[in-house]
């Protein structure tokens, strides 16, 4: 049901003055929003609209006539006749002192910080003219915590803005972070005194992308990649995830029209990778396996695993960790198909190695992902089905890739475009939209319809699952059955959906869940932008445009996927396909995922 619009006459307006300008805004508007409506910028640090409006940092203070104290603009509601000064001498002095006090308890070794040049505190100090810290520095005695395979916590950089706490509580509903201690001993840390690896953290990385400083960052694997690239005995094979192509140019200042996938291919070859391949190839492969599994469940055919409904997609390791930790009784609903990343690693170290005549033991498979949870996924003991150590050896995020490009000194926009290497480089538009929320669902339905009818429908026939809504649902007619589908992105929305399934208020056949708001386009490993300049919608639009322009838009039409089945796998769900491309979801352990040394890895059975 669509809510009816309230007549303009019924909206109560409030008139006030901001910096001597008369402003009229709706009742309930904050001073921050009112100032923004007339083009005035009040600086913020801890503020996240609708999520963290606690005024913890006090950077947004303004002077209000009649008040002896300065008030925080982010959570003070306007009142009739209010008079506000946003940049009086008193306000400017207070903001500078606030930032100076933060810097006394912040590790200011900026050149070695992952957020150097992209730090809100650094930017704020510069814009406020803070040139000296006149008080002594007193850092916490806590050291970096690196227990997680995906995320690093540096307490000496934390400014107690509480954004990570609020986002994890209100958006992802996991409550991993807590505020501990009092006074000068206050800190943000994993709840109940545990290490991050001991919690039920989904490793989604949303706390990292919303941290304004370098207190939270992904665990860097750049040095491991450089080491592999410089080793003449190793053959480096790199795969690029769908959502990376929509974002990699942002951190390098390259316009979207110049930051093409082919230019990224050229850049990766310049960095020294021996073979540059596309994860979209195994996204198409995922659709063949997952779509076939869905049809088997719908038709009651023999299915390896527990054919319960709804069937949940299994591409997102953050979502799988969430389900295993919060709703372990529903693990049987997960598709047994591995993610495209892991399918790629298994195929690369078997089929592709054979094609190239390369010993798989000498192959180093590197993934470039928009996701921090992929680091955890790659280290799981269940992701070693090719028989040559971990199927994926190293995972770096889009941010790490951009840092490597800067480190190398290459200017990608000046390179000539190049094509992916053949065999595992072909893909379709259906694979590209994996990076958008609803994309996996839409791609799977395109091929599921073909698997049932033997005919293609219109490529955009299932576009009802697109859109920014946190929880979307749609029904589609397959011959002899109406398929009820749902899409959720953000773990809070996933929780609402699951609770509705459990109490019987909704029923679905097929459900896609992505841990990050916006799906992989807004993943925890993507370039970090200002809150007012969220790039996720633009990235998503870019992915759908690439799909619309693709010569092939159905995964089952990928010629390289067809060849892979003919020459190696046999058919979707075959014994070989199940060994390499599927996993027993019940074997995933919440405390697993640490990347082990080569000596610690037990040998796995070869295909």
Q: Please give the CATH class of the largest domain.
A: Alpha Beta
The unreliable regions are: 1-7, 592-607
* Biggest β-sheet description: 5 strands, mixed
CATH architecture level-2 label of the largest domain: 3-Layer(aba) Sandwich
What is the count of structural domains? 3
CATH topology of the largest domain: Fe-only Hydrogenase (Larger Subunit), Chain L, domain 3
By DSSP, the count of extended strands is 17
- As a whole number of angstroms, the C-alpha radius of gyration is 25 Å
General shape: globular
Number of helices: 18
Please state how the strands of the largest beta sheet are arranged side by side: 2-1-5-3-4
Measured by DSSP, the beta-strand proportion falls in: 5-15%
Q: Note the gap between the termini.
A: 53 Å
**Which range best describes the helical content: under 10%, 10-25%, 25-40%, 40-55%, 55-70% or over 70%?**
25-40%
CATH superfamily of the largest domain: Fe-only Hydrogenase (Larger Subunit), Chain L, domain 3
Indicate the structural class: alpha/beta
| Average pLDDT number | 91
Please give a handful of descriptors for the protein shown.
607 residues; alpha/beta; Ubiquitin-like (UB roll); Alpha-Beta Plaits; four-stranded parallel sheet; 17 strands; globular; disordered N terminus; disordered C terminus
């Amino acid at each position: 049901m669509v809510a009816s619009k309230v007549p303009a006459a019924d909206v109560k307006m409030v008139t006030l003055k901001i910096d001597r300008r008369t402003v009229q805004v709706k009742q309930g508007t904050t001073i921050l929003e009112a100032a923004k409506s007339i083009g005035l910028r009040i600086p913020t640090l801890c503020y996240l609209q609708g999520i963290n409006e606690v005024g913890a940092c006090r950077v947004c203070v303004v002077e209000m006539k009649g008040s002896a104290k300065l008030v925080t603009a982010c959570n003070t509601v306007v009142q009739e006749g209010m008079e506000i000064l946003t940049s009086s001498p008193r306000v400017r002095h207070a903001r500078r002192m606030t930032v100076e006090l933060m810097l006394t308890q912040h590790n200011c070794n900026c050149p070695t910080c992952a957020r150097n040049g992209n730090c809100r505190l650094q930017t704020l100090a510069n814009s406020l003219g803070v040139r000296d810290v006149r008080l002594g520095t007193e850092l916490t005695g806590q050291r970096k915590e690196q227990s997680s395979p995906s995320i690093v916590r540096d307490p000496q950089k934390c400014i107690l803005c509480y954004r990570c706490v609020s986002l994890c509580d209100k958006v992802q509903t996991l409550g991993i972070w807590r505020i501990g201690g009092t006074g000068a001993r206050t800190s943000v840390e994993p709840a109940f005194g545990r290490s991050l690896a001991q919690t039920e953290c989904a490793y989604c990385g949303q706390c990292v992308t919303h941290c304004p400083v370098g207190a939270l960052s992904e665990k860097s694997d750049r040095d491991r990649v450089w080491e592999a690239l410089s080793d003449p005995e190793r053959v480096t094979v790199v795969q690029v995830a769908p959502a990376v192509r929509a974002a990699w140019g942002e951190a390098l200042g390259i316009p979207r029209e110049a930051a093409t996938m082919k230019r990224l291919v050229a850049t990766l070859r310049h960095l020294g990778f021996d073979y540059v391949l596309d994860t979209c190839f195994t996204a198409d492969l995922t659709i063949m396996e997952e779509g076939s599994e869905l049809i088997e469940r719908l038709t009651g055919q023999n299915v390896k695993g527990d054919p319960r409904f709804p069937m949940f997609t299994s591409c997102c390791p953050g979502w799988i960790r969430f389900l295993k930790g919060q709703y372990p009784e529903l693990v049987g609903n997960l598709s047994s198909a591995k993610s495209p990343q892991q399918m790629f690693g298994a195929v690369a170290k078997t089929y592709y190695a054979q094609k190239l005549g390369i010993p798989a033991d000498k192959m180093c498979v590197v993934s470039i992902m928009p996701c921090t949870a992929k680091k955890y996924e790659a280290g799981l003991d269940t992701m070693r089905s090719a028989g040559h150590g971990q199927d994926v050896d190293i995972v770096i995020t889009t941010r790490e890739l951009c840092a490597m490009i800067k480190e190398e000194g290459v200017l990608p926009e000046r390179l000539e475009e190049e094509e992916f290497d053949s065999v595992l480089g072909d893909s379709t538009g259906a694979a590209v939209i994996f990076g958008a929320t609803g994309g996996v669902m839409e791609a799977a339905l395109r091929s599921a319809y073909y698997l049932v009818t033997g005919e293609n429908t219109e490529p955009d026939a299932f576009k009802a699952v697109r859109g920014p809504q946190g929880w979307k649902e749609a029904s589609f007619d397959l011959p002899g059955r109406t398929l009820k589908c749902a899409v959720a992105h953000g773990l809070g929305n996933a929780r609402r959906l699951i609770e509705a399934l459990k109490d019987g208020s909704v029923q679905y056949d097929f459900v896609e869940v992505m841990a990050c708001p916006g799906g992989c386009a807004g993943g925890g490993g993507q370039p970090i932008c200002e809150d007012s300049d969220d790039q996720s919608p633009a990235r998503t639009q870019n992915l759908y445009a690439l799909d619309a322009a693709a010569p092939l838009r159905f995964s089952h039409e990928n010629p390289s996927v067809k060849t892979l089945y003919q020459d190696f796998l046999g058919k979707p769900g075959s014994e070989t396909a199940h060994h390499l491309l599927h996993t027993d979801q019940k074997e995933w352990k919440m405390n697993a995922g640490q990347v082990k040394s080569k000596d610690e890895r037990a040998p796995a059975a070869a295909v």
